[in-house]
Amino acid sequence: MVNRARSRLAFGSALLGVLCAAAGRGFGAANDTAPGCALCHEQAPQLLKSVHAGLSCDTCHEGHEKYPHAAGIPKPECTNCHPDQAGDYASGVHGQARSTGSAGRPDCGKCHGSAHEMLPPKSQTFRAAVPDTCGMCHFEIAQQFRASVHGQALARGITQAPLCTDCHDEHKILKHTNAASPVFQANIRNTCGSCHGDVRLTRKFRMAADRLVTFDASFHGLAAKAGSQTVANCASCHGVHNILPSSDPKSTIHANNLPKTCGQCHAGAGTRFAISQVHLTEGRAAPGVRWVRRFYLWLIPVTLGLMLIHNAGDWIRKLLRARFRGGVAGDRGEMAGETGELQMLPLERVLHAVLGVSFLTLAWTGFALKYPDQWWARPLLLLEGAQSVRSLIHRSAAMIFLAAAVMHVVSLIVSRRLRQHWKALLPQRNDVREALAGFAHSLGLGPEAPVHSSYSYVEKAEYWALIWGTVVMAATGLMLWANNIALKLFPKIWLDVATVIHFYEAILAGGAIVIWHFYSTVFDPDAYPLDTAFLTGFSVKRESTHSTEHSTGQAHAGPEPQAGAQKDAGGGLEQTE
Known about the structure:
By secondary structure, this protein is mainly α. Helix content is about 55%, strand content about 0%. The termini are far apart.
């Protein structure tokens, strides 16, 4: 009887082993509940609902095909199947902390749960649980997030609302001071823009679709694009985890809180006048901004267009005269250095050189802020960092330019010779007649060249445009430079208007220099290849007739006519900090 009982027990054990082994092999098939493993392991039903439901047991649990299982088989590692995620985790703050012995730092299981119960990361249930998961360690931050617009949207079931992992990344979580982190100050714009710059998302959730565009067009956006690491970004104004709508009294961008928010960078901003709209749009800009913009969008093409027509007609007529009438391009004759009259005195030539160099520097550094992606702006961007080198160069050039302008005024006061020289540029009654006659001749409406004064409408227009441009650009540029004071004393709309004027005036001045001044001193057939008055004081041109001033014996060189500082005041202080 004892032997029979022993035989039955051995047979039963063997049968159980066979069943378990068969169950193990059967459970290896995808989506097969295979009761074999389930007889001993209660995880089988849970596994069918997890992200690993399509995997067999032996995919992770190698060496368990036989029963009883061999002793000492190590537990499976997530890194075996997920090497990329493991590498990201190891380089992140959690992995680095864990590698130094901080066992309390989260690992795969703490964030994803058991491998048998792990939910798909894109499922609504998993995404909804992310703030609670992160909140196990970051409790206060999780509380702020839940109260924010993003947390409230998630609570309403909007699974596309951004979560911790959308901003900080999933496995490669880096410190915000790391340049590779999505929440590094230079990357904030792109991180926020992944949602607020997505047309489909803005339409679906009825969000303002212009927030990224208007930020990029602002000084903050332009400076950030140019490489500034200190300029304000989205988080500087809207907050980090505690982002609330502007209608919420607790919001950092609520009207009552804007002085404090903007005051972080601009001390005293909004303390006297309320801070107006920040994200300026083309259609919703303040009336003052719209009027100024419309004025310049009319003025610039008309002014530059008339200059282009005038000079093109003059060039064609002179070219035809030289080519088909057997003459020279103009009444050039001998070099003016031998027979001509002095056009620019030594001090005027020095001031002209200073104005020319400072103007070109202002134009380069000013437009580099507006168009940082252009090839000619890139050398400046290489120097950007914690300190804005572009801004420093721009402001230095502005001070040099203004110093030259002041020196010009002082020289007129203290020097009788320079003052007499300058009188030739005072407007006269016949200037309008000469301008109309000259323009008509350029259009081919007059067979003979009109009579020009020694300093005609060409030189006078350049000089007085220089005066106008200097005043406008200096006033708006200084206001933009002293933006903290301006925001404290004036409404913000003043700065918005000054920004628009500064930019469009720079375009007008730069275009006038290229079309009007360079033609007069370089491309005019009477001066080509170069009018050397700014070097020698004598022009290679010779006027066909003389003016009333000449007949009375007055000297002929204006402070910067003919040779070129005209309009040099325009274009360069645009959108300075």
